[in-house]
# Entry
Amino acid sequence: MVSIKDIAKHAGVSISTVSCALNGSDKVTKETTAKILKIAEELNYVPHAAARLLKTKKSNMIGIFLRDFSGSFYGDLLQGIKDFLSVRGYDLLVCSGAQSRRLIAERMIDGSIILDATFTNEELLQYMKQGHKAVVLDRELDHSHINQVLLDNKAGATLALEYLIEQGHTNIYIVTGPTSSYDASQRLRAVKQVIERNPMLDIHEITGDFTKAAGEVAAKHIASEYTTPIAVFCLNDEMAIGVYSYISNHTDLVIGEHIHLIGFDNIELSQFVQPRLTTINYSMRKWGALASEQLLKMLNDETVDHERVYVTLVEGASVRSSG
Amino acid sequence: MVSIKDIAKHAGVSISTVSCALNGSDKVTKETTAKILKIAEELNYVPHAAARLLKTKKSNMIGIFLRDFSGSFYGDLLQGIKDFLSVRGYDLLVCSGAQSRRLIAERMIDGSIILDATFTNEELLQYMKQGHKAVVLDRELDHSHINQVLLDNKAGATLALEYLIEQGHTNIYIVTGPTSSYDASQRLRAVKQVIERNPMLDIHEITGDFTKAAGEVAAKHIASEYTTPIAVFCLNDEMAIGVYSYISNHTDLVIGEHIHLIGFDNIELSQFVQPRLTTINYSMRKWGALASEQLLKMLNDETVDHERVYVTLVEGASVRSSG
DNA sequence: TTGTAGGCGTTATCAC
DNA sequence: GTGATAACGCCTACAA
# Structure
């Protein structure tokens, strides 16, 4: 492997001159710089990242930690992050699984974005104590090295439930998410607040876990109790898709007529099901861009405040007004 | 940051003793090893990856290079790779974009898996010449440091087209993919071979690019020419989804009745559309596992042969027999 | 069994 | 302007 030493030899200069020239220092004449650059080019020189990192303590790499790779959920988020980072000279590494956390501890990455509930707060704080910086997308956690960029779950869940109420629905099922999920618990909390303000509602809570299978189970339960048109708020779209699947395959009920359904996330599938799913929308891409922006600011020692990602309601024919 | 030097100081031994103890060398007594391990634990020691890499030239990291993060296409593939690698002590880094190729050139990763047509063969060969090893999923490229793990596109496309023929269809549209895609060109080649063997077929080729939008455009074209039931073979599912979308939103035609549709890839969406899309299926997860296995073998200097991922046909109601 | 010393490829601080 | 030289944190002969 060709190193600056080789270049130095070929150019007849010292390695420090080569290093300066390569790094564009003005402590070296234009001519020597040009000569060195040319030789580096000819020799096909590429710097050794590990060596540089060892010295500079900066890898220009950012890691995003996901719980898993499944689903189409993260595509736009990743794209949003990547686009933002790449024009600023940073690379994005997508990581999943306990093992990849070595990257943080072993200082291979300059900062990280966390969307992985399997990280405990303690573990994260431990890394921060060692000087690491991170943006969290999935929890509230305060530390000088942590910035929060969270979804406005409260607004979204409130919007969704109030929409059902506006449409005249009073008999409403709520299909919840896993307690380990920050988003799920926040959405549920908002739901409960709306319920408190609307005591005349007839609410049934069904435990779910954000998977399609849970949606199917919930649908089975709902169908078995069915007597008159009702509304269902699935705390994410994936479960709502499960409801569609069960209802259309195993019952004579019709979504948007007997069962008025609303979800959360506006995943790609939501626009394909018939009738279109009413849901809560937000820009994954913006979320990613915002998170990266905050992280780079922190790496740059700027002070940052926590940020929020706003949401809107998307109407589909899966909810119609009652009566 | 605590380094082996600190441990050495605390333990009252030299740094080499610490290093040996940490690496489990038998050149150091059980007692000192135990003591050192205990101190390392207490001090919360983690090795610095860059320093180790600089010396050992092994990062235990594998990179997979994707063209983009969009779509749900890659989830299972990545999971398959990750699961295989992690039990063998390797980490997976998911990379996209030109910039992240630094990881290869700068020797941050031990090997890579390529599924990104924006890599040119020349560029790849260049890396291989520098000693890098890779498994390619998206091209035929021969080099001692390259192993191919390719989809059996020929079998799949042949299966698909012959299925349409078996069902009695003779008037068939083919919606093609981008010429830059290996899979697309292989599928098209197989299609042409089937056509040669069946000269009585009435074939119409429509240029596509593997996107949903292309499927919609193709559907518009097909609908405008429609007189009698026909069959359509979209060279991937995403375009087939576009066909569904256009046909159901803009025409009175019915999939599985007027338009008999078959795709390729069996993406998640395919099972949700009504009627279910007939398509070519293969295990993304196995593909990933196989690719990783081959790569690790190469890193281990074992000789490997190119591998093939087999495919099957999944029947859905989107194709019925004609007449 | 343990310690010493050199080196991995860079960068950075000095003299010259 | 340029060139020794000492780090960075770790590994590994080889010496003691």
